[in-house]
Fold this protein.
Amino acid sequence: MAYRDNVVQLRSDVAMHELEASSEGSSSTGHYTQRDFCIYKGQLPISSQSGIKFVPYQEFDLAPSSHPDQTDAGNFFFVGRPSYPMATLATLDSLALTAEASVFPRAGAATVKSSLQKKVDALEMASANAARAIGRLESKLDALVSALSTAGLGIDTDESSTQVVDLAALPQLTGQALALALNALADDETPLDTATADFVRSLLGSADGAVRASAARALAYGTSGTAVEAIGEALAKEQNRAVAAVMRGALRATT
Amino acid sequence: MTLLLRKIDALDPWLNEGDLAAVAADPPIWAVREFMPSQKDGIDLSLHEVADESEAHRVAAAWAMLNTSPEKLRIAFAAVDRSAIEDIGLTITSSGGTHNHVFSDAQHRGLTIPSQTAVVAVASAFLRGDVIVIEPRLVMRALEAEIRSNGFQTVPIARAGTGNMAAKNLLKFIALQFCEVRGTAGLAA
């Protein structure tokens, strides 16, 4: 049975309860494309006609369904689109593996295993890439800390210390570096202590738009409501509509 | 009155300009670059037309779907009244988008930019318009709402092992616990 001669298709435009084992020419690449997989609910009337078999779900490390519609072991159900699209996708993903194994009768489980192995390999490669990226970042950070220390900006690199960066030194940095630091605080939703919050609040008056915007974000995410008034005042005075949009967005996300 | 949105690739230049309206008459090069159609797009600038900011959030959700880390995604749009673009005399066409998102694709517009003068005019119009910035938290909220309401026409999925963006998206959604994975009952071999 040639692979291309018997591609399982699940499409959103076919009638419910219909699953095609397509003839040659359809999906001729032999790949299961995005459009081939969509939402299906019902019994699969396929095995007797096509010879395609589906291995039990247990082999795919997915939890048995608690959905009331899925209690009949003889039926293959996808949960319908309105309620559980992701469940459907997980189902289809496993179906893709199953179908692939089935249309390669002699490959069978080995094909499935191979597909999974490729996935694992890809993940391992991504992990190695991430580790290298972290290494590069650490080198850059070391260089930055070194440069700032040389400039006398009071960077404390003692990891046992609770004060790692002297925020009072930050105004001596460029606006871009300051905006990056403030955005990092905001992205991590770092709570700001009183002194830091006061300092960041003062940056709302910075001449640098990126600093004003990122200061508003850091305040919005790092303080519990006390900075809202300050951001509101800054917003009322803001001339730059992009900066104002960032301020508005930060307030909207946090209040 | 509707708004035309253009997703901003680089927000920093917008923030660093003193007053955007003040430079609109002679748009800086970063603004011209922002509104220059890409080689891929030919002479049509890709825009979305929305009624209000809440609809911009829906478009942002569609954009977020394409991103591997939507939870870190801050999306910014330049926004301008459609009439401001029509006044320039450029052609706006309804061209289906490619987000696989029902709303976003329906609201996709192509703005024909036939010349350098047109780019400058469009940049000027947008600089006089508004900016919408959507924080990651709200992008995620919008994305979740769109997934739950089946806003996406087809959700990307791919064969296992391809390692492509679609497969990553699937895993991403499951990881984000937007939806419960219930598994399936299959036919016995």
Notes: The radius of gyration of chain A is 28 Å. Residues 204 and 233 of chain A are 10 Å apart (CA to CA).
